[in-house]
């Protein structure tokens, strides 16, 4: 019976877990990292609200004709250039040549353009002389700078 008692004692000793001293290191001696912080779940994005605009108030500008002060179409807007804040700075107007030959693009200051609604369409007019605009340097998107035609300041009355 003595052997049976020894076997029972040995079985009890082997079944009891050995306590290790509390240290920041695990059994392998490597430092334990703290658990990652719990991040709150991201809020679900809200669906966008809709606003209905009349078609005339939602017209695109690209391809729209540009009229001189007499109401004659002198070209079309083909691009809008923005400044560092994202505000429109200039419009690129394409002046048509004869049968598509000789088309030229000129950048015009945004402030030189006037927008209005005429017969349920956007009307874009420009105060600058069309003949003088055509003589200005051409807009080239790959150039390091853009020549922009601006409205000359009115002379002060003397």
From TrEMBL:
Protein name according to UniProt: PRC-barrel domain-containing protein
Classification via InterPro entries: PRC-brl_dom, PRC_barrel-like_sf
Compositional bias annotation for Pro residues: 33-48
Superkingdom of this protein's organism: Bacteria
Record-annotated PRC-barrel domain positions: 61-127
Native source species: Acidiphilium iwatense
Region of interest called Disordered, as start-end residue ranges on this chain: 26-48
